[in-house]
Amino acid sequence: MSQTQKTKTTVDIYGQQYSIIGSESTSHIRLVASIVDDKMREISSKNPSLDINKLAVLTAVNIVHEHLKLKEEYEELEKQLEQAKNEKD
Q: Which ranges form a coiled coil (predicted)?
């Protein structure tokens, strides 16, 4: 059984340094960190009095919400594609 190669990448999220170890490419990990950082800054600009813990939780809630909406849209598109295939046959 082979193990996936792990890489360690240091990223900056909302002014804090984090070392992330994962099997994804360094560029992917940096992109993820950048999206989290951007979302935290967006939420913080609208709610400047939030402490870091509440900001982190609200960021997670917002990102999971966006993920679920995209997943629903993807599933709906899959259904439409399947229906189109069935109508064609």
A: 60-87
Per-residue pLDDT of the chain (89 residues; tens, 9 = 90+): 446 799 999 999 999 999 999 999 999 999 999 999 999 999 999 999 999 999 999 999 999 999 999 999 999 999 999 999 998 87
From the list 20, 21, 23, 25, the residue with the least C-alpha distance to 37 is: 20
Rounded to whole angstroms, how far apart are CA atoms 53 and 57? 6
